[in-house]
Amino acid sequence: MIRVSQGDGQPADASSTDAKNLECWAKDAQSQALRVELADENCFIFPYAQLLFVSHHRTENAESLRLAFNTHDVRLSGRNLRGLAAA
Questions:
Q1: pTM for this one?
Q2: Which residue of 7, 8, 37, 70 is most buried, as measured by CB atoms within 10 A?
Q3: DSSP reduced 3-state for 41
């Protein structure tokens, strides 16, 4: 599951000193789907049974994560994505 906001329902402030310590995702061993929430409040749910592969790439200045499903190719860019790839 990927979340774009904190517990108070407001988007996390990237300029906050605490922002680098916040995780924008959570995992649940019972979960059968990946929920992706976008900043514009659109939401997508992808069943793990259709997950083909995940790849993580890191350069000096950026990271990207690719999740390939049967019908969709999800690409995320940001920082600290390795933990999400491992989950």
A1: 0.66
A2: 37
A3: coil
